[in-house]
């Protein structure tokens, strides 16, 4: 009992530590310009105002960056689902020459930090003429080793006999994949979709490198620009942070039930 | 006409040989049970026939046509898996319909076939449910239904009852027998349970380490096992097998030395030299109370099966206790007189094959091989 109180108390404290900056971010975004610079900084606005949001969207073109980020995140999610799920299933259930060796190679490549690959990746994109295009932003997201690994581990739990029953029933491999396998993979599809969306939405470095034109920028890059140019406008920056953060936070909260289930399912089912 | 003919089928996974030259013919409409211990290759045999595994060598023919190059769906077979392998996200109806939808049959025809199968298997009330809410027996029936709707030429059953509890297993055994009578289709049924094999089969194939030990009717296998392995595998309680050495083989009788100076008299033997190691087999139910080879032993342990008692009896010269079935229940430690009638003894040589009993007639193994060949030529 005592232990439970202590553990819950600790968890509540940690939740508070996590939530307070978020709440303050929202609070500051509603303050009038200059209000947050007082010492000590106020916790709540005297008069809540949407001035900062109006300025973001009216003068700083935030709507365009928001649309760019949204379009890229949705496309990245679709591409990730298409390629990671087919590849993960193939590694788990289809037999082809060199399958296990290739998979081991992929897993080994997981230890290479993404930053190390950035320069070669950029040169590749340059050769392919993808610099300063959305295609260039999306190219590295087509398939990820982590995504393939995630789907493979989950797909391993699909009984072979079920796939064989479908083969005996006369279903082709694509039909088996579409009608028998995909419905069974639903939890991991949602997990993968959330991960892909969040990764693309919050990616900063790669869009910064590959995109030049201001009107192609994504939210995190625009936000960084905002922080540089309006270093004293704390309220404006916080409004930008809210715009960047809230959609993904809501998405995650709405789907977290599936997200956790998908992550746990692979390990529990083995 | 849908007989199944396997010729020299071999299959290896890496260095492990699973099927080692299997020749088998299953006649049209026959119910053949393939039985053997775990890992003997029986499931692989079924999967080779289904086309789910390609044989390393040899050939499979169904209905007189070689099907080695055909995918499973085009072989005219249906398979019921041990785990049932139902599609979990589909209703029972959708599970039953799946194969027919793959064949792009007209909707009305699919519906009629599914309704008929559901009626046969008492599934009509369950058609809208998902497999997850069904009991083991109901799932099993759905799996069978999925096979029936396709109207296959050959049914393949891979240990279909092993996930059910004992009572349900017995009931489903009757249902399989009834199904075979009703459909008259060729059926191959794999199990490790020799009771299932004995009760269901027209003929039993005993498989051991990828080789066929014996093919025959349940009674043939029980009465005249061709090898020591079959003798020990078929029959409950299992046959007693006693290690011995042949002392003399005569035209009227033979005599065997057991450990510690004990001996047993057996039937006349031919074609074997004295001094050869042999195994003497006798079924527990064939041990008599008195007569030839009368001995006295001490009761070590009694297993009660209700109607009969299985007595474990320590006899001089035997490494393991002799199993004897009786109707009354002796007390452990009591002395009991038994006799081993020579005409009830089964004799196996050092290679495990049955020995020639009598004067120069073919060995039991040979005679049953010949019988099997005759059956093959008939079919």
CATH topology of the largest domain in chain B: Rossmann fold
The structure class of chain A reads mainly alpha
Q: Report on the biggest sheet of chain B.
A: 6 strands, mixed
Specify the CATH homologous superfamily of the largest domain in chain A.
MetI-like
Indicate the mean pLDDT of chain B: 88
Report how far the terminal alpha carbons of chain B are from each other: 10 Å
Number of strands of chain A: 0
Radius of gyration of chain B: 24 Å
CATH topology of the largest domain in chain A: MetI-like fold
Beta-strand proportion of chain B: 25-35%
Give the SSE order of chain B as H and E letters. EEEHEEEHHHEHEHEEHHEEEEEEEEEH
The ordered string of helix (H) and strand (E) elements of chain A is HHHHHHHHHHHHH
Q: What separation lies between the terminal Cα atoms of chain A?
A: 33 Å
What is the architecture of the largest domain in chain B at the second tier of CATH? 3-Layer(aba) Sandwich
Regarding quaternary structure, what we see is: heterodimer
Structural class of chain B: alpha+beta
Task: Tell me what you see in this structure.
The complex is a heterodimer of chains A (270) and B (379). With 270 residues, chain A is an all-alpha fold. Chain A folds into 2 domains: 1-49, no CATH class; 50-269, MetI-like (MetI-like fold). Chain A has 13 helices and no strands. In chain A, helix 7 (145-155) packs antiparallel against helix 10. Chain A is globular, with a radius of gyration of 23 Å. Chain B is an alpha+beta fold and 379 residues long. Chain B folds into 2 domains: 4-228, Rossmann fold (3-Layer(aba) Sandwich), CATH 3.40.50; 237-370, Nucleic acid-binding proteins (OB fold (Dihydrolipoamide Acetyltransferase, E2P)). Helix content of chain B is 26%, strand content 30%. Chain B contains 9 helices and 19 strands. A 6-stranded mixed sheet of chain B has the order 6-7-8-3-9-10, with helices on both faces. A 5-stranded antiparallel sheet of chain B has the order 13-12-11-14-19. A 4-stranded antiparallel sheet of chain B has the order 2-1-4-5, covered by helices on one side. In chain B, strand 4 and strand 5 form a beta hairpin. In chain B, helix 2 runs parallel beside helix 4. Residues 361-365 of chain B have low confidence and may be disordered. Classes of the chains: A mainly alpha (270), B alpha+beta (379). Chains A and B meet through helix 8 and helix 9 of A and strand 6 and helix 2 of B. Chain A: Keywords: Cell membrane, Membrane, Transmembrane, Transmembrane helix, Transport. Chain A: Its main location: membrane.
């Amino acid at each position: 009992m005592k232990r439970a109180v202590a553990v819950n108390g600790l968890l509540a404290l940690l939740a508070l530590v996590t939530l307070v900056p978020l709440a303050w971010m929202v609070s500051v975004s509603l303050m009038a310009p200059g209000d947050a610079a007082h010492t000590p900084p106020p916790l709540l606005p005297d008069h809540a105002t949407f001035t900062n949001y109006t300025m973001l969207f009216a003068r700083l073109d935030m709507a365009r960056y928001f649309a760019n980020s949204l379009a890229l995140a949705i496309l990245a999610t679709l591409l990730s689902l298409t390629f990671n799920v087919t590849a993960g299933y193939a590694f788990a259930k289809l037999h082809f020459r060199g399958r296990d060796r290739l998979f081991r190679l992929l897993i080994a490549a997981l230890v290479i930090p993404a930053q190390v690959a950035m320069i070669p990746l950029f040169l590749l994109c340059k050769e392919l003429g993808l610099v300063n295009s959305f295609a260039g932003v999306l190219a590295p997201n087509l398939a990820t080793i982590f995504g393939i690994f995630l789907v493979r581990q989950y797909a391993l739990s699909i009984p072979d006999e079920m796939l064989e029953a479908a083969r005996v029933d006369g279903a082709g491999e694509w039909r088996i994949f579409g009608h028998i396998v995909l419905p069974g993979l639903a939890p991991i599809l949602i997990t993968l979709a959330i991960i892909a969306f969040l990764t693309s939405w919050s990616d900063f470095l790669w869009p910064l490198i590959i995109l030049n034109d201001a009107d192609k920028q994504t939210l995190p890059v625009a936000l960084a620009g905002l922080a540089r140019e309006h270093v004293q406008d704390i309220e404006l920056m916080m409004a930008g942070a809210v715009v960047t953060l809230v959609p993904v936070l809501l998405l995650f909260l709405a789907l977290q039930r599936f997200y956790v289930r998908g992550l746990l399912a692979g390990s529990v089912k083995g | 006409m849908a007989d199944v003919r396997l010729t020299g089928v071999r299959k290896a996974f890496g260095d492990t040989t699973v099927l080692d030259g299997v020749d088998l013919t299953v006649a049209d409409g026959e119910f053949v049970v393939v039985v053997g211990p775990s890992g003997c290759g029986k499931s692989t045999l079924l999967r080779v026939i289904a086309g789910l595994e390609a044989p390393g060598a040899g050939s499979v023919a169904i209905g007189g046509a070689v099907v080695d190059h055909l995918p499973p769906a085009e072989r005219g077979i249906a398979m019921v898996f041990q785990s049932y392998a139902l599609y979990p996200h589909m209703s029972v109806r959708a599970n039953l319909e799946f194969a027919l939808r793959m064949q792009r049959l007209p909707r009305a025809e699919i519906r009629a076939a599914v309704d008929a199968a559901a009626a046969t298997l008492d599934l009509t009330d369950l058609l809208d449910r998902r497999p997850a809410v069904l009991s083991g027996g109901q799932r099993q029936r759905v799996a069978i239904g999925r096979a029936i709707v396709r109207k296959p030429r050959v049914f393949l059953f891979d240990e279909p009852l092993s996930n059910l509890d004992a009572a349900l297993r017995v009931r489903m055994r009757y249902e399989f027998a009834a199904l075979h009578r009703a459909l008259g289709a060729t059926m191959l049924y794999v199990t490790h349970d020799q009771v299932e094999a004995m009760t269901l089969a027209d003929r039993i194939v005993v498989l051991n380490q990828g080789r066929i030990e014996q093919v025959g009717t349940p009674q043939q296998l029980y009465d005249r096992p061709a090898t020591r392995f079959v003798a020990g595998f078929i029959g409950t309680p299992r046959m007693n097998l006693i290690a011995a050495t042949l002392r003399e083989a005569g035209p009227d009788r033979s005599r065997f030395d057991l450990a510690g100076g004990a001996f047993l008299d057996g039937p006349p033997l031919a074609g074997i030299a004295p001094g050869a190691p042999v195994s003497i087999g006798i079924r527990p139910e064939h041990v008599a109370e008195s007569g030839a080879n009368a001995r006295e032993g001490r009761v070590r342990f009694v297993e009660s099966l209700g109607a009969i008692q299985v007595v474990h009896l320590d006899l001089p010269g035997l490494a393991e206790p002799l199993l004897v079935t009786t109707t009354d229940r002796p007390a452990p430690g009591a002395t009991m007189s038994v006799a081993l009638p020579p005409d009830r003894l089964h004799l196996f040589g050092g290679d495990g094959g049955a020995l020639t009993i009598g004067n120069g007639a073919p060995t039991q193994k040979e005679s049953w091989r010949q019988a099997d060949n005759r059956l093959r030529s008939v079919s």
